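User: Hi! I'm working on a homework problem where we have to compare a predicted structure to a textbook description. Could you give me the structure for the chain below?
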Amino acid sequence: MENNIENTGFNYLQFGIKALRYWYLLIIGALFGVGIAFYQVRYSVPVYKVDARIMVKDEYTSWGQEFFLPGMELVSTRNRLVNEIGSIRSFPLMRKVIDELPEFKVFYYGIGNIKVTEMYRNSPFKVSFDTIINSRIYNKTYYLKILSDDNYAVGTKNNGDYDWKEQPFRKPINLKGNILNISLNGPFTTPFDANLYSFVINNPDQLAINYQGGLGISLEKEESSILTVSRTGNSIYKEIDFINKFLDVYIGYGLEKNNQIASNVVSFVEEQIDNILDTLILAENKLERFKSRSNKERISLAGEELVPEITKLEKEKIDIEFNIVYYEQLISYIQENDDASGIIVPNFIDRNSVLFSLLVELINQYSVKLDVQNDLTATNEKWILLNKKIEVSKQILVENIRSALMKTKSDLKRVQEGISFIESKMKSVPNAEREFINIQRDYKLNNDLYTYLLTKKAEASIAKGSNVPNAQVLDWATPYRISFVGPIKSKIYGSNILFGLAISSLIVFLLIYFNDRIINKIDLENATNLPTLAVIGHNDQDNDLVVANTPKSMISESFRGLRTNIKYLVEGKERFCVLVTSSIGSEGKTFCCMNLAHAFSLLGKKTIIVGGDLRKPMIYKDFGLKNDCGLSNYLINKTGIQEIIQTTDFENIDIISAGPIPPNPSELLGNKAMEGLLAELKDMYDIVVIDTPPFGMVSDALNLIKYSDVILYVVRQNVTKRNHLNMINEHFEKGEIKNLGIVI
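Assistant: Happy to help. Predicted structure tokens:
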């Protein structure tokens, strides 16, 4: 016979049924999660979010939309919103904010039994210092106990132990070479030794980096230029102070930057005025001397016709020469510097030209580099790629400027040729008049330029005075703009309960997965092909004679069903022998023997129970009988059959107890005497029920199987292991045992 036992894979329904047996573990897991959640909610420090709103300008701005030199804008800056967001997070700006917040030099904390609470602006003591000499003191936690109004103890914690140093408040203390002053903030009213505090002296650079990374900046709407600046933290007023100081510094930083640009413009114009003034004075003196010497006050008609033409060309020449100087200086600056602070985009460059686009692109790239220079290392891939892009942009831009420079020099040559042509025409004018024309022309050019520069200086000064910030605060950070972030009780309880259930579910899964015991009928069917004749419930009574004492119980009904199935196996025999065995002890063999015998007796069948378990006699106890003389006595020929049969108080039921335990039970059960005894009993009784030792442990039951008509193999829930059935399966498949059934 082939073994048809198969592993059909994971059975979710069967697993769920088994898991229900461990429902209490799921409840324990959920309660465990509730306990963790309660601890977290009770001792977690609340986290709040503070925000403010600013409006950033995102447009080209030009003071007065005028130019301080022909073709050069007075001030022209591009405030792109995307770049502004980057500059807001810049390290220099954040460092300046930290420097202007004296409360951020030292953070104070109150130490509880479990929870540590930050004490911002309400610490009972204050730590002050002028300068930090030894940076090893930064970010190190120092603990402090206030002993009295005059003394305190400060120390560090090593391996759980405090190293205290007592010190008076009036005397400075030296910590790692740094002189600190620790003073009380008013009278100390809390009982001494009742509180433990700590303080941390912050490294301003590290603190700036921390706040740089924790600053939230987001667009209110995609199409707007309104930004929301936010911070999350445990101290509401600490974050409010930071946000407001940050906005104050940011706006002042931008205004200072714009004012610096305007100041540079004014200084440049003043320098040009000083230079042109000397030239103008020389031209004026030269004109006066010529008039005094030649007594000439006006130019002839022929000379007057040439003056406007040559004056126009001279002005054009000045513009072109200025452009040439700009291009040459721009090339030199780009090649020699690695920033865009000195790049000015003049108005003579067409806004739609390639040169203008290249200049703007380079300025933007340098702006990005400035924003990220404190966040990226020199070996960072993004930093290396950004520098490569800048170098490529510089090369392309320089080549484009050189092309523009060549064209501008060509224009200068053309203008110079025009001036030379007019000067050749002036040779027909008398020498004295020609000299007067040249002197008067120089004077007029310098005077017009001087007047123009004075006008632009005034405009630049007015522009500087009317300068406005690049951003405007719409809403400052206030206690009314805070929102609670956490801990959110519902989320904490929910997540921890799920965690507890997950842990308990894992335990249940492992218990079921690694449990190789027979749990239910499905497990039994997966472990053997043997038919199941009956499923007997658990007996909660003190007495094992269930069929006799409670004939209407479910267990009694199960034994009656087993009785019916046995009758089908024996195919109508009126007299037969039933052998009951199992894999190991304590699986219910004796219980099944007694109650099965009672079930047959109720039909009027004369039944006898044979105590074939010579190693562990048990069956006589529930009937209130003795074991002094039994089967073992008969098998060694010390007594006859009538002497070993004991009558019970129940009708149609007799018993042969096992008798005294012999030294060789297996040999006794296999001798001819046992065969003869069973043959006699079959003649005397309708039903013979044999209780045997475990089949999987000794060979006693195997000796008696050949005399039996039906073999019942008892499997007990949560006791019998699946591999215990391997031996009986093997005998059954080989055909060595027939009429075999399982009772679970």
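For your comparison, note the following. The chain has four domains: 15-44+487-515, 67-251, 260-475, 521-743. The CA atoms of residues 159 and 255 lie 52 Å apart. Good luck with the assignment!
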